[in-house]
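Reopening: structure tokens for the 3,4-dihydroxyphenylalanine complex, inputs below.
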Amino acid sequence: MEETLQQLRTQALAELGAAPDEATVEAVRVKYLGRAGSISLLSEGMKTLSKEEKPRIGKLLNDVRSEVAGAIEARKAALDEARDAASFANVDITLPGIMAWRGGLHPMTLLLDRAVQIFRRMGFALADGPDIETEWHCFDALNTPADHPARNEQDTFYLPDGRLLRTQTSTIQIRTMESQPPPVRIIGPGAAYRRDEIDATHLAQFTQMEGLCIDTDVTLADLKGTVEFFFRELLGDAAQVRFRPHFFPFTEPSFEIDIKAPALGDRWLELAGCGMVDPAVFDAVSSRRGDHAYDPEKISGWAFGFGLERLAMIISAVPDIRYFVENDLRFLEQFR
Ligand code: DAH
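Re-run output (same inputs, fresh job):
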């Protein structure tokens, strides 16, 4: 029996050593250690052994069984390892990987979000209006009658029905006052359109942001404070704001806003228009509303408007406005 055991061990280990795959390993296991396997069968013969032989042969039997079981596991592990190694054969693990693609927001969206955040903190609500507007909302109500020269400067695209693509987000002022009584404290970002030759500083469609604040006793000082706060938040505490007298049909007095900030070089940059809402605008709104909610004797207000592309160009030193609409990733990726 001892001899048979030694033989079985040698045989089993040799077969395992030569087993080329897991199926063969499993067949070897069944052959020797399975319920009807030769080692298992042999252990039944233990009964016939003498008392003296039993412990020795019993121990040998256990040793052989665990040795073969161990060899089975070892062979399986070796086969696994060989398979893993084979699947990496011909793979150069030193090659650079392929990065997962991560998108980002458009620079105009990023700037707009920041601007909206700052005005939100001052209690401004978001307002909007349609891109396709009536002439009345875009010009007449903004104190710009048909023969006003400002209409030439803001030539735009007209639809066959006489409506037009708004040339300025100032239409949002009118839309807001039509639909709600004072007090008003809104910002209105959106697209504006002009029939401009496209070049490094002009697009036929661009982005503006309008602001409007109306209440009793609103003054120019409130406007200045609001605008200064906005630009300091956006550009840092060292930013300076200058109001320069100007003309807009819908404000009186009117100003252009210039800013200067260390980050932007040491020159004044013209950035926005603003002023105290002209009583003629309140009158136009009142005639539409049919009430006296916007009686210029009782309320006052200010407004501003600026181009967001121009602001983004100044802040990020973008030399050509067309970059914003060309969707060139080499440009867009710099803003993430
Ligand atoms: N709408 C003007 C433009 O497009 C900008 C502007 C100037 C808006 C003065 C205003 C304002 O609200 O008060 O050039």
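The beta strands are 125-126, 132-133, 164-165, 184-193, 205-215, 240-248, 251-260, 269-277, 300-307. The chain has twelve helices and nine strands. Marking as resolved unless the reporter disagrees.
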